[in-house]
Amino acid sequence: MIELKVFRIDRNNPLPRTMTEGASGIDLHASLKDPVVLERGEYRCIPTGLIVSLPQGCEAQIRPRSGLAA
Known about the structure:
- With about 70 residues, this protein is mostly loops.
- The chain has a two-stranded antiparallel sheet.
- It is built from no helices and two strands.
- The protein has strands at about 5-10, 50-55.
- The protein has a domain at about 1-15 and about 45-55.
């Protein structure tokens, strides 16, 4: 198991965690003051309120929610 060091900038935002047993990833929450609406094909940087330190040789990927991926 890989140990991640996570620092919360926004203490109101929950820490990342797996939502189901056997999940291959952890769920991340946006740290927003106001809602954001993205138009088709639009992209933006969305803050997470976290700083994460990964061990050398590891990477992190942020992907859409599985229910929104289609």
